[in-house]
Design goal:
CATH topology of one domain: MetI-like fold
CATH architecture of one domain: Orthogonal Bundle
Low-confidence stretches: none
Subcellular location: Cell membrane
InterPro entries: MetI-like, MetI-like_sf
Radius of gyration: 24 Å
Distance between the termini: 37 Å
CATH superfamily of one domain: MetI-like
Mean pLDDT: 85
Shape: globular
Number of strands: 0
Keywords: Cell membrane, Membrane, Transmembrane, Transmembrane helix, Transport
Family: Belongs to the binding-protein-dependent transport system permease family.
Pfam family, one: BPD_transp_1
């Protein structure tokens, strides 16, 4: 009787958890669904009462308006180039720095690490003017390089890599490799990199989506329409006198699709890094 009661209680508890997770998932996904609905409706549906929650038939027509107003595909290509290059550089720099902070001893190690972490609490707006001045003096205005260089040093990435390498790469393995004559870079390439691939996926998704959604710095640096990223290009769709919400949200919807594809491709590694840390 006791086992049956415990099983019943456990089953009810699991059902309650699954029900809560399902509702939370639906609540989280609703903004994306509403964005899709508005992308298929005329602009007037945006302020309709009661709100419109069923898709319409204007998805193609609204997207054609977007194509007529901005060079959507060029902006998407610019954004993909920017996000991919920044992600690759951040992964390399963060993993190398994280490896150094996690497994090496050198003077001022803790002070350097704390200084890097402290940069995370500085609002990015405070550095906008001096950063713009430096990029201007370097001749990188209106270039993707000028936008990308600001994101190369990622304090969060260095912190995540340091923590993951500290917990996942045994010191004995590194010592054994050194006894075999491996250089530090070969240890990084042949031992550390294969172990931290799940963390790579996690940090890659974080960096890619963060750069994709960043607007202020991109809007400050880019003035040539041919160099616009998708965020800057979409910002030009609205004006003071006439805002076509159907057109704008259609552009936003199609600009979100690549992010969903990226996450679906790498979500297994992303989840693996989380569960691996939990198990350890």
């Amino acid at each position: 009787m006791g086992d049956a009661a415990g099983t019943k209680k456990f089953s009810i508890g699991r059902i309650a958890i699954y029900a809560f997770l399902t509702l939370a998932s639906l609540f989280s996904l609703f903004p994306f669904y509403w964005m899709f609905v508005m992308a298929t409706r005329p602009s007037a549906a945006y302020n309709s009462i009661p709100p419109t929650i069923t898709p319409g038939n204007l998805l193609v027509e609204n997207f054609q308006k977007v194509l007529g107003a901005i060079d959507f595909f060029q902006a998407m290509l610019n954004t993909l180039i920017l996000c991919t290059s920044v992600t690759i550089v951040v992964l390399i720099i963060s993993s190398l720095a994280g490896f150094a902070f996690a497994k090496f001893k050198f003077p001022g190690k803790n002070a350097f690490f704390v200084a890097i972490l402290l940069t995370m609490v500085i609002p990015p707006q405070l550095g906008l003017i001096p950063q713009y001045y430096l990029i201007s003096k370097a001749g990188l205005l209106d270039t993707l390089q000028g936008v990308a260089i600001l994101f190369f040093l990622n304090p969060l990435g260095i912190f995540l890599m340091r923590q993951y390498i500290s917990n996942s790469v045994p010191d004995e393995l590194i010592e054994a490799a050194k006894l075999d004559g491996c250089s530090n870079f070969r240890i990084y390439r042949s031992i550390v990199l294969p172990i931290i691939l799940p963390a790579f996926a996690t940090l890659g998704i974080i960096v890619f989506t963060a750069v994709w959604g960043e607007f202020l710095w991109q809007f400050t640096i880019l003035r040539d329409p041919e160099m616009y990223t998708i965020q800057v290009a979409l910002a030009t769709l609205s004006n003071t006198f006439n805002v076509d919400f159907g057109m704008i949200l259609s552009g936003v919807f199609w600009a979100t699709v690549p992010l969903l594809i990226i996450f679906l491709l790498f979500n297994r590694l992303f989840i693996s890094s989380i569960t691996d840390g939990a198990v350890k």
